[in-house]
Design brief:
The complex is a heterotrimer of chains A (220), B (214) and C (857). With 214 residues, chain B is α/β, with parallel strands linked by helices. Chain B has helices spanning 5-14, 43-46, 56-66, 87-94, 108-112, 117-133, 151-168, 196-213; strands at residues 36-41, 73-76, 101-105, 137-141, 172-173. Chain B has a single domain, classed as Rossmann fold (3-Layer(aba) Sandwich). The longest helix of chain C has 49 residues, at 251-299. Classes of the chains: A alpha/beta (220), B alpha/beta (214), C alpha+beta (857).
Chain lengths: 220, 214, 857
């Protein structure tokens, strides 16, 4: 079991409207190599769930166990390290470093984690996302689809146990979106990764092995 | 703000001048039968740099009291920095205290400033003449110049006093600063104004001349 | 290495920003360096001037020869690496032919002068004086001695018993005689040639000088003090040796240069604070810009520590580059000053930037960036990759610990400010005053700003679209508006401190308008000579100024207590009575005048009544007391003072305190009496003579002396010239430094405003996309920025009035004057800069395709 979510709850304080419960006792498991989509309407808690799985935020109650370790027991810097080793994240907004080329963006996590054979791994990854010919371009010079391909490559280059994707095609047109999602699933399949995909796009969700629907903070 | 302090400092350091007040409340206009002594001098008589009652005119007042001359009234009309040029005007002002004896101790500043000795003689002469007209007995205190002024000028300067005393047949103290001038222990740090001890010696020098007039 | 590469690459990619940043910071730092260099160069120049006046670093003066024991003690205390010279000085009568004159003999050894030099007409040398009985004198002196043409030149001059001859004529001599006025002309001779004159004997009144000059950097006032102590310990009793350093040469000059040092410190600190504020502001903007990138790095595994290192390295790198650039700029700038500002800065000043200033600015750039940005830096704690998901830039504010951390993060910056202030201002006390004032101003202006922007809410309810949007922006973005307001107002506050202090100081130092620089000063004019003298002067080509009566007397009582006080008495005002202890032995000069001189102003109380005082009157007469005299002896308006004037006790009451322009060079008195009190007292008169052509001076002097032989004519040309020369330099410099500070400050404000207007681009772009017409957009921008600029400048200037008063009171003896011109200029400039930069930025946005800007978000 790569990911175990045990009855997590999360609520936010709002200055005017009081406490807002976003997640209410959500639990599910994800095995190695499994893919699952989390869908739901805006405000149903999808993004919050994703941030809790990624360890970017901590639940008020419940546990997130990633590859056998409870994220709640780690401090900020351990968490940061663990997250970097185990999780790759693909954002809707791509979030590439604007001053680094496609290639450098991809190799960045390897450098940060001080890994060996950076060049080979980067080359391989570039090839997989078919950007070898665009590797020296800066994000500003790439199209949206290309940017997202770089982001996917950056997420996968450290060979994470779990890949998280937050509306990876949300910022792309239909055609490009399809290409990117195809690439994403192909790579997940090829590398045997687990995937949690947050989206409200039913077509994209349907490509996952399981679909979990969030409604007002609960899984249905 | 010390306006013009520099000028004053310079002027009054070089040309010390003074006057002195004797005792806390001087009975200037004394009762009949007493002796009124007037000092007209410069900083040496004004007691520049010492307490008023340490200056030699005040010491003489004390000595007179001790000698049984209780009615003696001492008026010190000395002004620091003054020269002989103002002597006559000052005597006129002090005539109102009706002095019996005038101790005329001016000239040092004239000499130190290198003023004309004949002018100085004229000024002193006019003052003595007026005093005599008013029946005031005059004691002339002589001064000597420091040797650095040169023998020639110093001699001419000294001669003024001798000639005047001779001419007017008045008592003459040859050198007011006798046994005081030039002695480090008897002078203030400026090297020219007597200290407390110095004033005692001056008082001792002047006192016999006053006694003689009584 | 990876992080360093990253950091450099990042900066290269963002070179536009990096350049802007470096340029802004370096301008601030260059301003600081320029101001500090100019100030310290001038200070140094003044020091040199004072040394020239003293002709040495340190001098011992005694009335008898210095003993070997005393000399060796001095030698020991003053240490090695020094040179020395000897001078013996006395008055004597010199005779040439039939003429005899009083002269001042300056017998010098071969090392004299240690600073300065003779300007001689011929080829005479000091060495000649040592070997032969020759003298140096001026042509005027020779003329007065009857040596008027070539034939007379061989007339022997008899000094004591020894004949001398004229070796050479000097036009300038090294001795500037600021302590002893020119009662008699100076004649220089060799020290060894004194032998045989017979002038030095027992009873001779002679001054012995021992001059020292140090070849290494030493604390001269400190050494002088140490030497005084050592002498007092080793030779107890009344001190017979006076020890002076250059600053003691002239009290007023020393005080004025002291003011200048203080002023320079103030301007430097202000420049430094301005540079610091601008730096912190720019860094803050930079960090805000970097937030997203930091979050990305955190999300892919970078730790906070690495992020800190990454950002710190960038900051230090930028700061260092800025400092280097600042140094380069300022080196050119400082060198160019004399050319650019010809006539605005004193001539003959060698402008040097000393290494410590450069080190300080280097440190400011390198570490300052870190220290001053710490408050911004701690916000990195608050950055979470979560923002990447939520799509918000807002850092959560709030928790108590973070608030505490935020507050604590200001401490190193304040501490650094404090240290630098102490360094620049010269003392811990002064540094603390600056920093405390800075913090107070910050608190006040923040409060003010908060009130102002809260007050924008009602203003935004207007129907006018421009007003509505502009004021709503200000009110809704209260924190952002506030930070901009506080930064600008702090800048303006600091800048406008300068002109207020400057005006007061300048008025003090500047030569009074229409000043008649005296040539001669006359003492001992007798009462009966007054009218003849005035008449005599009417026929001369010269102006007789300010002929003043002078009467000497003592002060006996103040409020019926003995003036000389009692040190042991209970509750005695000890410091005052201690000073008064001497008062009894002192005599003072009293005078009276119909109206106050132009150099005098009443500081407290009302003018003396014009009606003459009646001797029979039961009321005390009215007295006017000079302010510093009153302070020194603890006198105040209303005090009843018992005087002793020419044997007559008189009682007066202090009616007013007077301030006297010290550099008026007119006869001024500490104590002025009501008319009628002194009119009949025996008195002499002082007067000054001005407007005498150089070539007529000697002739006029001779005429006066022969017509009024008892009147001493003191030549004050040299003294007045020297003092006024220095004053003019100071006055020019003080103004120049004020301009420099304002210019540097305006640059800082410009960079802040520009940064702020860049931030405004998104809003402008949005308004444009929504279809607002360009005029409306411009109006909104102008109103918004104009409002911030105007209110910030207005409150800052008002605050600076109060603060500059306090500073003047604390550091500069209350020399303060309201300066409307500069204040208005600062107000308008600030508002103008804010509006101008905003307008430029908004124009730029309007001319850009909206998509490009939207795409960048």
């Amino acid at each position: 079991m790569i990911l175990e979510i045990k009855a997590i709850c999360k609520s936010f304080h709002q200055p005017r409207s009081g406490t807002l419960s976003v997640l209410k006792h959500v639990s599910f498991n994800l095995g190695a190599g499994e893919t699952t989509a989390v869908t739901g309407q805006s405000g149903s808690g999808k993004t919050t769930l994703l941030s809790l799985i990624a360890g970017l935020d901590s639940p008020d109650d419940g546990q997130v166990i990633l590859d056998g370790k409870d994220l709640g027991t780690m401090n900020e810097s351990q968490l940061s390290r663990y997250r970097a080793m185990k999780i790759g994240i693909v954002f809707q907004q791509f979030h590439l470093m604007p001053h680094l080329s496609a290639r450098e963006n991809i190799s960045l996590p390897l450098e940060i984690l001080k890994q060996q054979r950076i060049r080979e791994q980067t080359d391989a990854m570039l090839e997989k996302v078919a950007l070898s010919d665009r590797q020296h371009h800066l994000p500003g010079q790439l199209s949206g689809g290309e940017c997202q391909r770089v982001a996917i490559a950056r997420a996968l280059v450290i060979k994470p146990a779990l890949l998280l994707a937050d509306e990876p095609t949300g910022n792309l047109d239909m055609e490009t979106g399809e290409k990117v999602s195809r690439l994403l699933f192909d790579l997940v399949d090829e590398e045997k990764k687990s995937l949690v995909l947050v989206t409200h796009n039913p077509v994209l969700a349907s490509q996952c092995q399981t679909i979990k629907i969030l409604d007002r903070g609960r899984l249905v | 703000m010390k306006p013009f302090r520099l000028i004053y400092f310079g002027v009054f350091l070089l040309i010390s001048v003074a006057w002195l007040w004797s005792g806390p409340a001087p009975p200037l206009f004394a009762a009949d039968g007493s002796v009124r002594i007037l000092f007209i001098g410069d900083s040496l008589s004004a007691g520049l740099g010492v307490e008023p009652e340490q200056a030699y005119p005040a010491l003489i007042h004390d000595m007179l009291k001790e000698q049984g001359v209780p009615g003696a009234v001492v008026t010190n009309g000395s002004i620091s920095g003054s020269t002989t040029a103002g002597a006559l005007a000052r005597l006129k002002w002090f005539l109102r205290v009706k002095p019996d004896i005038l101790v005329l101790a001016l000239g040092a500043n004239d000499g130190l400033r290198g003023l004309s000795t004949s002018e100085m003689a004229r000024n002193l002469d006019k003052t003595i003449v007026l005093a005599k007209e008013k029946n005031i007995r005059v004691i002339l205190a002589g001064m000597k110049l420091p040797p650095n002024y040169g023998l020639e000028y110093a001699r001419a300067f000294q001669a003024v006093y001798v000639r005047l005393a001779d001419q007017h047949k008045i008592p003459f103290i040859p050198f007011l600063l006798k046994d005081v001038a030039g002695r480090v222990s008897l002078n203030q740090s400026d090297g020219i104004h007597p200290n407390r001890e110095g004033h005692r010696i001056i008082a001792a020098t002047v006192f016999p001349y006053i006694l003689e007039q009584l | 290495m990876f992080w360093i590469r990253m950091a450099i690459r990042d900066l290269i990619t963002n070179r536009g920003f990096a350049l802007f940043f470096i340029l802004n910071l370096s301008l601030g730092l260059a301003g600081f360096i320029a101001i500090h260099s100019f100030g310290s160069s001038l200070n140094h120049h003044l020091d040199e001037n004072l040394k020239d006046i003293l002709t040495a670093d340190l001098v011992l003066i005694a009335n008898s020869p210095l003993t070997p024991a005393e000399l060796s003690l001095a030698d020991q205390v003053l240490g090695p690496d020094k040179s020395h010279a000897r001078l013996i000085n006395f008055f004597t009568m010199v005779r040439a032919g039939d003429n005899a004159r009083l002269i001042r003999v300056m017998a010098i050894d071969e090392h004299y002068p240690l600073y300065g030099a003779f300007a001689l007409e011929g080829r005479g040398e000091n060495k000649d004086l040592q070997e032969r009985p020759g003298v140096f004198m001026t042509r005027d002196t020779a003329y007065a001695l009857g040596i008027r043409n070539k034939a007379d030149i061989n007339t022997p001059l008899v000094l004591g018993n020894k004949p001398f001859f004229i070796q050479d004529f000097f036009t300038i001599d090294p001795d500037k005689s600021l302590t002893a006025v020119e009662l008699a002309p100076k004649v220089y001779m060799g020290l060894d040639q004194l032998e045989g004159t017979g002038l030095i004997q027992f009873g001779s009144r002679i001054k012995y000088y021992q001059f020292y000059r140090f070849s290494r950097d030493v604390d001269i006032p400190g050494l002088a003090e140490k030497l005084r102590q050592k002498f007092a310990e080793t030779f107890p009793g009344q001190p017979r040796i006076n020890i002076y350093d250059a600053r003691d040469v002239n009290q007023r000059l020393g005080r004025v240069t002291g003011y200048f040092t203080g002023y320079m410190g103030l301007v430097s600190v202000v420049a430094l604070f301005l540079a610091g504020i601008a730096t912190a502001y720019l860094f803050r903007g930079y960090l805000n810009l970097k937030q997203r990138e930091m979050a990305i790095l955190l999300s892919i595994g970078a730790g906070h520590r690495e992020i800190y290192l990454y950002i710190s390295f960038q900051l230090v790198l930028l700061g260092t580059l800025a400092a280097v650039l600042a140094i380069v700029i300022s080196l050119f700038l400082v060198q160019a000053f004399p050319i650019i500002f010809q006539g605005l800065i004193p001539r003959h000043i060698r402008l040097v930037t000393d290494p410590s200033t450069l080190m300080l600015s280097m440190g400011m750039g390198m570490l300052g960036s870190l220290i001053f940005c710490l408050p911004v830096f701690v916000r990195i704690f608050g950055i979470k990759p979560l923002m990447l998901l939520r799509g918000t830039q807002q850092v959560k504010r709030g928790t108590f610990t973070r608030g505490l951390g935020q507050a604590a993060s200001f401490l190193p910056g304040m501490a650094a400010f404090f240290l630098v202030s102490v360094g620049v201002a010269g003392s811990i006390r002064n540094g603390s005053v600056f920093v405390a004032g800075f913090v107070l101003a910050l608190v006040f202006l923040s409060g003010m700003g908060w009130l102002i922007f809260s007050g924008c809410r009602p203003l935004s309810t207007t129907r006018n679209l421009v007003g509505k949007i502009a004021f709503r922006n200000l009110f809704r973005n209260k924190w952002s508006s506030l930070s901009c307001f506080v930064t600008i107002s702090m800048g303006v506050f600091l800048i406008s401190l300068i002109p207020q202090v400057q005006k007061g100081l300048q008025n003090e130092i500047m030569r009074p308008e229409g000043l008649k620089i005296p040539v001669f000063f006359l003492v001992d004019i007798q009462e009966e000579q007054r009218l003849p003298f005035v008449e005599f002067m009417e026929h001369q080509a010269a102006d007789l100024v300010n002929i003043s009566p002078m009467v000497r007397g003592r002060i006996l009582t103040v409020n019926h207590q003995p003036f000389y006080g009692d040190n042991t008495g209970p509750g005695a005002r000890s410091s005052v009575s201690g000073r008064r202890g001497r008062g009894r032995r002192l005599e003072f000069n009293f005078s009276y005048r119909e109206r106050l001189d132009v150099s005098e102003t009443i500081f407290q109380g009302s003018p003396l009544s014009k009606a003459p005082w009646n001797f029979e009157s039961a009321h005390p007469f009215e007295v006017s007391v000079e302010k510093s005299f009153a302070e020194q002896y603890g006198l105040g308006v209303g005090d009843v003072v018992g005087f002793e004037i020419q044997g007559i006790p008189l009682t007066g009451r202090i009616k007013n305190l007077r301030k006297v322009r010290w550099n008026s060079f007119q006869p001024n008195f500490f104590l002025l009496f009501q008319d009628g009190v002194l009119n009949d007292a025996p008195k002499t008169f002082l007067a000054a003579i001005s407007h005498v052509a150089r070539e007529d001076r000697q002739a006029l002097k001779n005429k006066i002396v022969s017509a009024f032989p008892n009147v001493s004519v003191i030549d004050v040309t040299q003294m007045a010239g020297t003092l006024l020369g220095i004053m003019d330099k100071l006055s020019l410099s003080i103004r120049f430094m004020a301009w420099l500070a304002i210019a540097a400050g305006m640059v800082s404000i410009f960079s802040i405003a520009r940064h702020e207007s860049w931030k405004n681009e998104n809003q402008v772009n949005l308004l444009k996309v929504l279809g607002a017409d360009f005029k409306a957009i411009q109006a909104i921008t102008l109103l918004e920025f104009g409002f911030i600029g105007l209110t910030a400048a207005l409150f800052a200037i008002l605050l600076s009035f109060g603060f500059s008063r306090v500073i003047s009171w604390y550091f500069f003896d209350s020399l303060w004057q309201f300066d409307l011109k500069f204040s208005l200029a600062i107000l308008l400039l600030t508002t103008g800069i804010c509006m101008g930069t905003a307008l430029t930025a908004s124009r730029r946005v309007m001319n850009t395709k909206p998509a490009r800007l939207l795409g960048n978000t």
